[in-house]
Structures are given as C-alpha cells and as structure tokens.
Amino acid sequence: MRALVVDHSEAGPIRFADVDEPVPSTGEALVEVRHIGLNFGELNYVHQWPAGAVHGHDAAGVVVRAASDGSGPPEGTRVAVGMAPHAWAERVAVSPASLGTVPKGVDLADAAALGIAGVTALRVLRKRSLLARDVLITGASGGVGHFAVQLAALAGARVTALVGSPERAAGLRELGADKVLTELAALAELAETGGRFDLVLDTVGGPLVAQAWNSLAEGGTIHLVGYSSGQETTFPAGALFGFGEPRSIATFGDMTPTSGELTELLGLMAAGRLSAPVGLRGGWQDVDDAVQALFARKVHGKVVLDVA
C-alpha cells in the first residue's frame, strides 16, 4: 500500500513509499483512511522519528475490520483517528483508544482536522474553570489556536487572540474572540493598562512567553504547547519574582488515549457548536506543496488532504 514515510534527506520531511500492509493485533481495528490531517510539529521535528517509518498521527476513515477482541467500533463505522502512530497511509491499525466515532452530519475531512490540535486545546483549557475568566490564545490562526478560541468562548471565557499579522486575524472574532491583537506591542500596552490573563495557551514560544508572563494575573498559568517561532525565551532579571498568589508556567505533552476527547469534540461539531479550521484542502499527492505552505505560514488553521 502507499504511505507517507519519514525522509531525513534534503528532499524531506516526508515522501511517498510502498509499505507493507498493517497487521492489527487482537485489540486493534483496521481503518481505511480517507483523509489525513497535517500538523506543523510532526513535520518540523521529523528527526524524532526513524527514517522510512510511516508518519503522521491524525486521520479519518472507515473501519474495514473491527478489533477481533470485540472492543471498539464495528465494521463500517466512520471514525476519526487522533494521536495514533503511522496514520498517513491507505490503511492503519489503530487501538480503539485512539478512535472517535464520527456522527452523522459531520464531514470526515473535518473530523481529520481534530486529532492533535483539537485534543490539545481541549485538554489545556480544562485545567481550570474558564467562566468569566480572561484567556489569551497565541498563534490563534493555527490549528490549535482556532480550536482553542472556540472552546474557550464556549466555556464562557473572555478571549483575546494574538496573531502575527492583520491578515491572520480574519475570522477569529466570528469564532468567539472578544479581542484580536496583531502585534506583540499591543500585548505590552494591554498589560500597562491593567489587562491580565488567568490562562495563556501559547503555541509560539520565544520572546512572546516573557511578554505573556508580564500580562499574567495572580494565580494564572501559561501553558506551553508549541514553539513555532523557534526563538529563545529570555526573562529579565527579577521578572520571575513576585508577591501574591503564585503564577506558573506549565509544559504540555499529554499523549494519553484520545477517544474520549475526540468523541466530545465530534459531538460539538455535530451540534454546530464547533467548526473545523481547515485552511487548506487538497489531494495527498500534493503533500509537498501543502508542507511548504504550512512552513511558510500561509495556512490559517489545519491542512487536510484526501487519500486517493
């Protein structure tokens, strides 16, 4: 079968290859993949995976063989695959713990956009009650950011979205952002006027983290879920000292089973309360162009490719 595998050469980060058919264990379903969802992190950090390995973690398709132990969805079920290894192939063997059943009315391509981005946003925002809280989402035009803006607004938060340019601000207010900032200086000005955030979900890293720290309320937390800027973070002397209720910076790397969160997110989609941030859609034969567009920051939201 055809698959996208890790390529460590200059032509990488991924390439097409013919690979062996997956052989499911007793506790795995065989899924025929219809769409794959690309994420910046798994493409930018391919050195963490062996060359030639089938890559990717997010997809959507149809169960063509249920798990032989009776667990998981039956044959014919439409499913979303989230945070599962080796997902960018024509077929993949998946534990039911990484599957969410796609409800009627939800497009499979939209379901493929969930995975890492949607589950990450949901898990971080559940760390505390958000009702009437002030939340900052950085890199809000990306996949995690688009989901986070919507979920925070649904939870009753006052949402501020920060993006890198006015062009990347499009549509964020419609998704639930109360304020949209397009420059780091605007965040500094907000802090000077007393603007403080109870929770910050940061996907950018670099100097932005230090600036967000200055805007953090007592008892607030910055959750680091990415570092797309590739820049270092430097805190001025004394910046991490303060009085009052402690503030904190938390890392994120939760790779536990995603079935529960996928099911909840798909339910919100079916109810019309959550939309998939698909900024680029095409065939997987055009994956090289899609990767270049993602790296060039030309995509607002997620890249979803159809497997043909």
How would you describe the overall organization of this protein?
By secondary structure, the chain is α/β, with parallel strands linked by helices. It contains nine helices and 15 strands. Strands 3, 4, 5, 6, 7, 14 and 15 form a seven-stranded mixed β-sheet that branches. Strands 10-9-8-11-12-13 form a six-stranded parallel β-sheet, with helices on both faces. Strand 11, helix 7 (207-214) and strand 12 form a beta-alpha-beta unit. The mean pLDDT is 95.
What's this entry about, in short?
It contains nine helices and 15 strands.
Radius of gyration: 20 Å
Q: Name the quaternary structure.
A: single chain
Q: Whole-number average pLDDT?
A: 95
Beta percentage is: 25-35%
- Poorly predicted ranges: none
Termini separation (Å)?
Answer: 12 Å
Structural class: alpha/beta
Residue share in helix: 10-25%
Morphology: globular
Order of helices and strands: EEEHEEEEHHEHEHEHEHEEHEHE
Secondary structure layout plus pairing:
Layout: E1 2-6, E2 14-18, E3 29-38, H1 40-44, E4 58-65, E5 78-81, E6 91-94, E7 99-101, H2 108-112, H3 115-125, E8 134-138, H4 143-154, E9 158-162, H5 172-175, E10 179-181, H6 184-192, E11 197-202, H7 207-214, E12 216-224, E13 248-251, H8 259-270, E14 278-283, H9 287-295, E15 302-306
Parallel strand pairs: 8-9, 8-11, 9-10, 11-12, 12-13, 14-15
Antiparallel strand pairs: 1-2, 3-4, 3-6, 3-15, 4-5, 5-7
Helix pairs in contact: 3-4, 6-7
Describe this protein with a few key phrases.
single chain; 308 residues; alpha/beta; seven-stranded mixed beta sheet; six-stranded parallel beta sheet; 15 strands; 24% helix; globular
